[in-house]
Design a protein that fits this description.
- It is built from five helices and four strands, in the order ααβαβαβαβ.
- It is of the alpha+beta class and about 180 residues long.
- It has two domains: about 35 residues; about 100 residues, OmpA-like domain (60s Ribosomal Protein L30, Chain: A), CATH 3.30.1330.
- α3 packs across α4.
- The protein is elongated, with a radius of gyration of 30 Å.
- About 5% of the residues have low confidence.
Amino acid sequence: MTINRFTKTLILLITLTSIVACRSSSEEAATAPAAQTESGIDATTRRAQELAAERAAREAEAAERMRVAALNTKVFYFDFDVAEFRQADRDVLTFHARDLAANSGKRIRLEGHADERGTREYNLALGERRANGILNYLIVNGAARAQIEVVSYGEERPAATATNEDAYQRNRRVEIVSP
């Protein structure tokens, strides 16, 4: 009985393969006259243009995904006792600056934060320097000063309340907030 089932399956596969082979050869025959009427250079040029258009569309989609991901990034972290944002954040901040430049009615608030180490006054000043560093970068890259408000909370609004390095790292930040 298993040999019978195997044989039936084999016959079915051979039949389907034959149908597919016949169909593809008839499709080739149908397109052959059109290809013969075009010169080889025209067909090659057209195909190269199609491939270039496809590549451009894929690149545009990838650029749009990157832009959306960058604009969804709203928190930028800082090293201990440092007011300069990280080099890795430049591209993301550039997308934010371009978005502000393209949307003159858009407004944001940069909220500077610090960890709990240091005096209250020092941490307020550090949070402000961090936010102003990002503000200056956004302005240099196309945003208008009138679109951006800067606020420093220092250590007053921690993202994490623990007293370890991980919590300190999460608290040293500037957040972009839409008012």
